[in-house]
Write a structure and sequence with these properties.
single chain, alpha/beta, Rossmann fold, two-stranded parallel ribbon, globular
């Protein structure tokens, strides 16, 4: 199959490049804004035609959650309009769109892990534009798989894990919120899960939403403590409330995603969050040696 990956220099895009290097049975096309403007329908249409795209994995997104409150038009363009364009091109070419979405489409008021069919009710600009992107794809009539994930991190780019390790080297103590619960996701595990979906559903008519994170649930404070411990940092982590750390965009207090659907439909085993965190930190340490 001919597989297009957008946003190829983000955390997930880089992880998918590593997957592609080990799976040469498919033809992979990796693009970013410099090589394909996914907000330009004509450009996307030409790319699909020229390269016979069978599957498009959309990793591109506007992910600056707080900044989105001040730039709603740009967030809407990247998170809603671009997925609509990709979906329309997939419909026209009978291709499948695999689109990465977020736990921020939920309001965080649940007391149980969110299922794929639970009602969405985002309150941030970021969450609303990502939810609108999902709807645009569903309304297009194309074959699609929407994968919602959360708390993404890796050994590349900017993310919570790398920030905590940096602070562990420069601070004696830090404060981290302890009343927002979710689950981290190692980009390498998400990339592998997406590849499993490609292999299972790439050539089948499909209209599915899946949730994927690592197993387990923790708060940001617990996550930070684990990062410091595994990374060998001696920085003290203090638990605080969300009210003590105000942000422009409101975060979900609870955004744990139910993983039963993707496990039952693919048979995949999902690693526990701490096991994957240990592997990622080992990668980071090796890169810094």
């Amino acid at each position: 199959m001919n597989i297009l990956v957008t946003g190829c220099y983000g955390q997930l895009g880089i992880a998918l490049q590593q997957i592609a290097a080990d799976n040469c049975s498919h033809q992979w096309f990796f693009t970013d804004i410099d090589t394909l403007n996914i907000c330009d329908f004509n450009a996307v249409e030409r790319y699909f035609t020229a390269n016979g795209i069978d599957i498009c994995i959309n990793c591109a997104a506007y992910t600056a959650v707080d900044k989105a409150e001040d730039e709603p038009e740009l967030a809407e363009k990247v998170n809603t309009e671009a997925p609509r364009i990709l979906a329309d091109c997939c419909k026209q070419h009978q291709s499948t769109l695999i689109h990465v979405s977020t736990d921020y489409v939920f309001d965080g008021n649940s007391r149980h892990p969110y299922r794929e069919d639970d009602s969405t009710a985002p309150f941030s600009v970021y969450g609303k534009t990502k939810r609108n992107g999902e709807r645009a794809i569903q309304e297009s009539g194309c074959n699609y798989i929407i994968v919602r994930t959360a708390w993404l991190y890796s050994s590349t780019g900017k993310n919570f894990v790398k920030t905590m390790l940096m602070l562990g080297d420069t601070k004696d103590e830090i404060n981290v919120v302890d009343d927002q619960k979710g689950c981290p996701t190692w980009a390498s595990d998400l990339a592998q899960a997406i590849f499993v979906l490609v292999e299972n559903y790439g050539k089948k008519p499909t209209h599915e939403i899946f949730h994927f994170t690592n197993e387990g649930q923790i708060t940001w404070y617990e996550f930070a403590c684990a990062i410091m411990e595994i990374g060998g940092k001696h920085c003290k982590v203090n638990p605080i409330t969300t009210d003590q750390y105000p942000t422009k965009a409101k975060r979900p207090a609870y955004s744990v995603l139910d993983l039963n659907k993707i496990k039952s439909m693919t048979g995949m085993e999902i690693p526990f969050w701490r096991d994957s965190l240990e592997k990622c930190i080992e990668e980071i340490i090796k890169k810094n040696e």
